[in-house]
Specification:
Blueprint (H helix, E strand, L loop, with lengths): L1 E9 L4 E9 L4 H8 L2 H5 L7 E4 L2 E3 L10 E5 L6 H15 L7
């Protein structure tokens, strides 16, 4: 029985959306390869790419279900926790007047 899935990937300047019909039992990796967006996985280089379905992390070998929205996530450019710590450290120095380290 045929099933339909959507594969999405976004860059800062573009959004890629592909609709695909496949067979039951198709994996997420198969769907990405057949969609023409496999270049995203190959071009990831040092920043790891993750896969999800409707915002939940999944693996390439997981089986796709009819109606799935398969999302390809780019690696982060900066660690959000490290950025938050850096901002908080800067605010501690400024808060309350002159820094008396």
């Amino acid at each position: 029985m045929p099933m339909r899935v959507e594969i999405v990937f976004a860059t800062p300047t573009q959004q890629h959306r592909e609709h695909l019909e496949g067979e039951a039992g198709m994996t997420l990796g198969d769907a990405i390869a057949r969609s023409g967006l496999a270049w995203v996985l190959e071009a990831s280089g040092e920043s790891p790419v993750q896969i999800g379905v409707f915002g939940r992390l999944r693996g390439l070998s997981d089986v796709a279900v009819d109606g799935d929205r398969i999302e390809i996530y780019r690696g982060l450019l900066a660690d959000p926790k490290a950025n938050r710590r850096r901002r908080a450290a800067g605010q501690r120095r400024v808060k309350g007047g002159a820094y008396r380290g």
